[in-house]
Amino acid sequence: MQQNSFSLSYYILCCLLFIICSSAFAQNWTRLNTEPYPGKQDDIYFVNENIGWYVNGQGKIYKTTDGGTTWQLQLEQQGTFFRCIAFIDSLRGFAGTVGTDYFPNVKDTIPLYKTVDGGATWQPVPYEGPYVKGLCAIDIVKEQYINRGKIDYKYHVFAVGRVGSPAMMITSHDNGKTFTSSDLNADAAMLFDIKMFNKNEGFACAATDANVQTSNALILHTTDGGQSWQKVYQSARPFEITWKASFPTREVGYVTIQSYNPDPTVKQQRIVKTTDGGQSWQELDLCEDFQARPFGVGFVDAQHGYVGTMNSGYETRDGGTTWYQIDLGMACNKIRIHHEQNRVFGYAIGVNVFKLQ
User: Fold this and answer.
1) Closest by CA position to 188, among listed 172, 211, 165, 171
2) Helix, strand or coil for residue 76?
3) Whose CA is closest to 315, among 323, 56, 5, 88?
4) pLDDT in tens, 196-221
5) What b/e string do you get for 44-69 counting C-beta neighbours within 10 Å, with b at 16 or more?
6) Distance, C-alpha 92 to centroid of its chain
7) Cis peptide before 162, with omega less than 30 degrees from 0?
8) Contacts of 148 (CB under 8 A, 6+ apart)
9) 274: left (phi over 0), alpha (psi -120 to 50) or beta
10) pLDDT tens, 45-70?
11) Half-sphere exposure of 45 (CA within 13 A, CB side)
12) Is the pTM of this model over 0.85?
């Protein structure tokens, strides 16, 4: 009897220690103090835990140097709808625009801007190739190489767009000094996100048709830097497009699927997952809520991740098998998770800006 009591007490003690330790290392999303915005803001990017930028559809670019505690308005350009942003380092960065003829009051026809002074000034990016109507996502790949007997790095910049069509890509293989555009309309009607593992291989989130009523969600794969693309996933339902991607490992990746079916009885929201490096994709149920259209996705590791939807956020700790609702604000469009010096932190943007810490 005494032995059983001791065993029970020991078990309870272990459980309490586990709960205390889990709470001590638990991370939560905290809403940051930012300027109010009447809708979804699209992208946020940090080069380290303290220095970052975010953009929105009012032609504004904000910068923080204290991890999001305070923000400085660096640029306000009326008629520009900034859609995406990414930086090579604390000085060199790029901001993409969605372009004209999609959102009202947008007049800026320049798809990409560049800064070399940390966002203090921005200039249009010239490029060779067909006209790029607009961009929705930018990805930057860091490549190690030998430079005159020393290890050095070069950066490849990939940007794709856009929502509403056409499907275009713009790339640079010389640290953003020169750019070339290409037409991807033979492979997709719209492009929303791009994830490149190196200068040759990666995936693009796309849609089969510019008319959402007849569109299927589509994922494309390239092994030659975007010169050619192969379909690796296509949904079987109309009214669907993909949106954003997250690859916590080279083998495991997640992509959000958006349904625009007007039938309120069609409630199931989904994401897709790969465990073989993107060769095959499995549909996973996210939630059953007509209004919870999925947007951004970001994973800490292969099992633990987050999805933003139109009206809330969702978290999983078992690779997407089960989800529970969390506060990520409304229309959380982009979630970026960072691993830095054995620490994990993240930033997310939608109607509001959140920090994972």
Assistant:
1) 165
2) strand
3) 323
4) 999 999 999 999 999 999 999 999 99
5) bbbbebebbbbbbbbbbbbbbeebbe
6) 20
7) yes
8) none
9) beta
10) 999 999 999 999 999 999 999 999 99
11) 26
12) yes
